[in-house]
Amino acid sequence: MNRDATHEHPIRRSLRLPGYDYSNEGTYFVTICTYNRRCVLGEIIDGSFRANAEGNIVKECWYELPYHYAGLALDAFVVMPNHVHGVLAFLDDVGAGLKPALAGKPRRNLAEVVRAFKTFSSRRVNGLRGTRGVAVWQRGYYEHIVRGEKGLSEIRRYIADNPKNWEMDRENLRNAALPGRA
Known about the structure:
By secondary structure, this protein is α+β, with helices and mostly antiparallel strands. The protein is built from three helices and six strands. The chain has one domain (26-163): Alpha-Beta Plaits (2-Layer Sandwich). The two termini are 14 Å apart.
C-alpha cells in the first residue's frame, strides 16, 4: 500500500464508483468485516451459522435499519463468524404510510446507513461485553451496486450459500495461508 509523504497513514484507494450518487434509488450489496476479522459473531457448524449473543445483536441491528431510514428496504442478509453480507435498496417513499415519523426525513446515502449499522451494533455489542468504545468493525466496507435481476439473483445465492462455503471463504482466517489467498 502506498504512503503519502506528508502522512503516516497508508493512502486508501477508494472502491466507490467515481461520480456515482450513493443516495440514488438502487440496490447495493455490502460486506462488513469485524475488527481484525476476529470470529466474534458465532460459528459455522455443519455448514450452518450459529449466532452467539453478539451475532444476534448484529442481526437485530440490521433488521432495525428501515425504522431509522425512510425508503430503505432490506433483502438478503447473512451473519458469518467475522463478517456480514447484506443487500439493501433505496426506494422512493417506501413505508411513508407505515412510518409517519420518518416521512419528512431525507433519504440517507449508503455510507451513512453502513455507519449507522456499525454504530448501533457496536454500542449494543460493547454494552453486552461491558467494553465501552472497543472496535467491533473494520474501518471500511465493501460495496457493489447491483445491476439487474440476474446480478441480484447471483448475490442472493452467494449470501444463502455463504455458511456452506465457509471452509473456502476468503474471510475465513484459516485460509490466509492457502495459495491465491491474501
